[in-house]
Amino acid sequence: MFQDRSLLSPEIWLRALFASKAVQQGQVVRRKRRDIERHVGMERFLEKLKSRGFRAIENRDQVVIFCNRAPIRRLI
Fold first, then answer.
1. 3-state secondary structure (DSSP) of residue 46
2. Which of 37, 39, 32, 76 is nearest to 58 (CA)?
């Protein structure tokens, strides 16, 4: 049987994400929307990004997180 709730608490999942090397270095990370919703909930996740000054975009089921405050420019 498939379990749709995470065994990780939202706090642990968020702590692991924000402690990652890519986030600490101001790079870009990506997560599946389904995973964000399952582990934390999209609203809470976006609040946490906003509080850090990060931005995110979504394409299909992928959320791309820019872990810095640099401008985002669409190329094409």
1. helix
2. 32
